[in-house]
Amino acid sequence: MHVTQIFIFAITANEVQLQSIAVATMAFKCNWYEEYNKEIRQMILMIILRAQKPAVLTIGPYKPMTTQTAVMVMKAAYSYATMMMHSFK
Question: Which Pfam families does the entry link to (predicted)?
Answer without folding.
Answer: 7tm_6 (PF02949)
